[in-house]
Amino acid sequence: MAHRFRRLISWEGFLLLMLVITIVLNSTLAPAYLRLDNWINLFELSIEKIIVALAMTFIIINAEIDLSVASVMGLSAGVIAWLHQAGVSFPIAIIVALAVGMLCGAFNGFWISFAGLPALVVTLATMIMFRGGARVLLEDHSVGDFPEWFNLMGQQPMIGPIPLSLILFALFVIIAVVVLQYSGFGRYVYVIGNSKDVASYSGIKVRRVKMILFTMSGFVAAVAGVLYAARLGAVRGDTALGFELDIITMVLLGGVSIFGGSGSIYGVLLAILIVLNLRNGMSLANLTGHLQTGAIGVLLILSVLLPNMATYVRSTLDRRRYARLPQETAV
Amino acid sequence: MSKLQRRIQPGQLRELVLIFLIIMMMVFFSTQIENYFSPRFFNRVSTSVALIAVVAVGQTLVVLSRNIDLSVGSIVGFTAYVVGQQLAHNNELAPLSVVLMAVGIGALMGGLNGVLVAYGGVPSIIVTLGTLAIFRTILVEISGAQTVLTKDLPQWILELPQRNMFSMGGLDLRLMVALALLVVIVFSLLLRYTAYGRRLYAIGSNPEAAKIAGFRSQLIVFIAFVLSGALAGLAGFMFIARFGNITVVAGLGIELESVAAVVVGGVSINGGTGTVFGTLLGAILINVLEQSLIRWLSISEFWRDFLLGFLILLAVATDSLIMNRIRNLWAQNTLQLLAEPAEAGEFVTKGREDNGS
After folding, report:
1. Which residue does chain A place closest to B134, by CA atoms?
2. B236-287: per-residue pLDDT in tens?
3. Min CA distance, B320 vs chain A (Å)?
4. Residues of chain A that touch chain B, judged by Cβ-Cβ distance less than 8 Å
5. Which CATH number fits domain A15-314: 1.10.150, 1.10.3470, 1.20.120, 3.30.70?
6. d(CA B255, CA B253)
7. Does B350 map to a domain?
8. CA-CA distance, B169 to B166, in Å (whole number)?
9. Å from B266 to nearest chain A CA?
């Protein structure tokens, strides 16, 4: 019981509290908020970002970062549009787009794990490069006219009121939880994030794990890019531009340490729920997109600053108490 | 060999490699593009380098201390807009006070980053990712999506980009370029010869050791962020002069350009190594590449970003490959001078492992 309680005062407990506060505030703000269709809508509006956030969790726990995800999303969406324009049959176009995403991820992984370059540098360069790739394919026009079923896939509910993207997200969540929290591979991800040297001395194939993670990240980003194309019904060269910041924010807010080795999928899921609900609530209160982004920026900083300050206050109080102790117990 | 070694340090060699890369690139493009080495091209590259270099110098200080400042783009945009608005309202403002205002606003914003990172103990990537959004939001809110227009600005600032320090055979040294060079020189000296600069390196290479040695790490990191903000503010001023029309999205993406210049320039993202001069070379490399690709007729303009990203990656990869080789050679030679051959072999393999990680 005691350790259960202790677990609640952890980061996840804090996030849970934040989530409850947001939900209560939102539901007093607008009665429509608690309706199921609003909840599905709130997920759908950023479903692509939260899918990629799951993959990003693995990468950041592994003490790396992938800035190129949004560009991979744009590129894979671009590949679909380009192939469609060239008359290739649509299912094949989707498969090629997913393969291109995986290749992009593997390309990142190669430079990071085998050439030993820092991930921040590599993915910064490939972010420019893959975005450039999308622009090469689409130049400056917008490509639409996708087959009816593809657009329906992105926009219409599939099972009951739930659209395909949400089902995929749920599937990815289950896979992510099982792999990261309950599998040997997941343990490797944590160990490498804590210390690459310790991991390689204990016989973990660090390079291979990193390679797998980045390839996976590219693949997931490509899936998200395809879903985004289906939802919007049109693709341009700047599709998904700048999404990486939102994605990384969600992961960091979820308590994943930027230095790697700690954090969990559960925390990230809570953070995703908070961000989505906060944005939704602010929209219901007629606050515009920019204010929402700013509020999430404040939240991101506070989420790390407040626990730090609490620790500081506690240690100062402790020090004072110890300072008084010797007078009582002095020999 | 040993004589040469004593002359040139590995760090300087890295800069020589960069200069070599820039020259190779220019030679290549001069065979591809007619009339490549024109004065106009020189001016265009130098003015675009000037703005990025000023921001990148600030970024260098922050990265040296094992931090990162992603908010510089928003700071450039914010100061450019706010100062531009003041200028548009009151054309009589003295040039010096305008510059000071821009630098001051930038320093304040950098100070906020610095307080949160150094004293709040929040990782810099989180703080500056947050302030990147926050500063931009404040800008959008206070501006009401209005634009500062060129026609409202006083004449002197619009003429500033064309002002020359001196011309030499058609090559002009623009005032803004001179300003950027001054910044590079001042901060080069600061990093190389002042106690503050050396401590910044010490903190970056080993924060714990620096703390144990008694450095006031928090203050030093705080000042690095203030300086980065102040330089971003100065770049904001240069932004007004260069572009005139300032919208709320001014300076978007400068943070990535400055980080790219820093890492291409050989400053380690893990702190502790690199120079301001290297950063300048990084900024020059990227800008020459960008401007040359614009003029290269055999590729469409849409290929530009793709090639740029690829070549940045290639530059960093070659650099790290060459540097690792050279460092190993260095260690080998030094140890051969110092120790018995058998022992030297042992040490060399150890050195190689360290470099590989």
Report:
1. A294
2. 999 998 888 888 888 888 888 898 899 888 888 888 888 999 999 999 998 9
3. 8
4. 111, 115-118, 120-122, 124-133, 135-136, 139-140, 196-197, 237, 245, 248-249, 252, 258-259, 290-291, 293-294, 296-298, 300-301, 304-305, 308-309
5. 1.10.3470
6. 5
7. no
8. 10
9. 11
CATH of the domain at B272: 1.10.3470
List the structure tokens of A304.
Answer: 């790390």
Closest CA to B262 of B65, B35, B103, B127: B65
Whose tokens are 């490498």? That residue is A192
Please list every residue in chain A whose beta carbon sits closer than 8 Å to the beta carbon of residue B310. 125, 129
Q: By residue range, what is the domain housing residue B49?
A: 39-326
In sequence order, which ranges of B194-302 are alpha helices (DSSP H)? Answer: 195-205, 207-212, 217-243, 254-264, 276-295
Is the backbone of residue B154 left (phi > 0), alpha (psi -120 to 50) or beta? Answer: beta
In a domain, B347, yes or no: no
Output the six-digit token pair for A50: 């939260």
Candidate from B123, B130, B312 with C-beta closest to A297: B130
Domain count, chain B: 1
Is B175 within a domain? yes
Distance CA B236, CA B238 (A): 5
Check CB contact of B305 with chain A, cutoff 8 Å. yes
pLDDT value of position A329: 54
Tokens of B226: 């203030």
Please give the ipTM for the structure prediction.
0.79
